[in-house]
Amino acid sequence: MRAKISAVCLALFLFGVVPAGATATVVTVSGRKLMVAGVAFTIKGVCYSPTPAGSSTSYNWYADASIYKNDFALLKAMGVNTIRVYGAANMTAEFLDAADQKGIHVIMGYWVDASKVGVAASETAMVNEFATMINKWKAYPAVLLWMFGNEVDANVSSKSHWYTLLNTACVRAHAEDANHPVGTVNQEITEIGDASVKADTTTLSALDIWGINLYRGSSFGNAFSVMSGTSTGKAYFISEWGCDAYNGVTGAEDRTLQNKYIKSQWAEIAANLSADGKSCSGGTVFEWSDEWWKGDSTAGNVGTIGGGGVNGNSVQDTSADWQNPHGEAGEDPNMNEEWWGIVGIAKNTNDRTLRPAYYALQQAWYVPTSSVDTVDGIINPNIIFQGEIHSFPNPFRAGIDDTTIKIVVSGSPDITVEIFDLSGKKVCSISDSVTIGYQRLFLWRGKDSDNETVTAGLYICKITAKIEGREEIKFRKIAVAK
């Protein structure tokens, strides 16, 4: 699913410097279980590559703390415990430390150029670079796994040659680091366990875990039963799954279909978890945020992955990049590569539009860490509202984006959220909400009580909270842009 990323930055790999005082998280594989510090671990994660709208893949978001720190706060509030990155050439200590501070593990990918598989000198260079990457970052607590390549199996001329190289890389990884498992990410499951192409357990003796990219519509079909077979008996997780948020049939954003597919897909993963005695170690949904750089937005051109084009990075492409034969009857078969995010992005800002799929996964994944959610600070039981009311993005585009109204409260009050225009006329009440510990998140889609899109302008959000005979009211201005 990924286009080729930017070239490896060798300058970052010159020295395997271990940070003073850092302690690696010990991660192991026990049968089908992924174990973190000796406890069975389920990956509840996202594929993470937050290139800003209008930028190309050469943009180094690892060095842009304003992006990842904003994202990590939203990811923690969602219940994410893992992010998967496709290449760590530009990785920074600050990035890994920020992830660790939010309790987020990182699956560290090394990008393998499939065209170089079979070229002896290139293979040696890649294995050496992989080893250098491991030595550089292995002591950081956020590191979860090492993954050598993404969908290389689908792009090489000799699969047998590829799997032989893969095992060599895994052997080298274990020699450099005894504290983290190593694996690769395959496209689909058809080759896993196949001795004829050397994807079997005997050849891949040093491989600990498979990542599997699966796009089969709303259901994974027989994938879990196949992977539970004795011939494939290694740990695995679903490294890409999900649904794009654009409907090529209706020619409009379709958050409902995306949400339906993602809820169904996670339900199947959750029913097959190795932590519960089954076989799957969880999954990383594809993906966190939309990627505007992938398609060709030039008028008249059909989008292609990594196509770019004159306007390719500044306009969100709506051309289908491929067709999914696994979609349900009557539903959109078009796959739109620039629309896979469970959050949308806006140009020239770090604003995120949280799509319904974000909230669906949040309901499945989020577990408060204590009776008082430490994300929100100390709760004062003598008042209902804890701090100011926040809304993001603000301003937002009604009918295109949503805005999330975040409220932090003590106790369990009844909350009413109403929107008024500046004349004092009530526009609507909002009931679309999610509770996370002491947070209440209300989603306004920019519609009135008749489900009509409101006009641009300034609106007043009135929040009323009642509990045990007490009532508090707060107001928040929300701007709707043209």
Low-confidence parts lasting 5 or more residues at pLDDT below 50?
2-18, 297-304, 370-378
Rg from C-alpha positions?
23 Å
Number of domains: 2
Supply the helix-strand structural class.
Answer: alpha/beta
| Spatial shape | globular
Spatial strand order of the main sheet:
4-5-6-7-8-9-10-13
Q: How would you characterize the overall build of this protein?
A:
With 482 residues, the chain is of the alpha/beta class. A hairpin with a 2-residue loop joins strand 1 (27-30) and strand 2 (33-36). The radius of gyration is 23 Å and the shape is globular. Helix 1 packs parallel to helix 2. It has an 8-stranded parallel barrel with strand order 4-5-6-7-8-9-10-13, surrounded by 4 helices. A 5-stranded mixed β-sheet has the order 19-26-25-21-22, with no helix packed on it. The longest helix has 18 residues, at 120-137. It folds into 2 domains: 10-365, TIM Barrel; 376-481, Immunoglobulin-like (Sandwich). It has helices at residues 65-78, 93-101, 120-137, 159-176, 223-227, 255-270, 356-365, and strands at 27-30, 33-36, 39-40, 43-47, 82-85, 105-110, 143-150, 182-187, 209-213, 235-240, 246-247, 252-253, 280-285, 322-323, 334-335, 343-345, 352-354, 390-392, 396-397, 403-408, 414-420, 426-430, 433-436, 439-444, 457-467, 470-481.
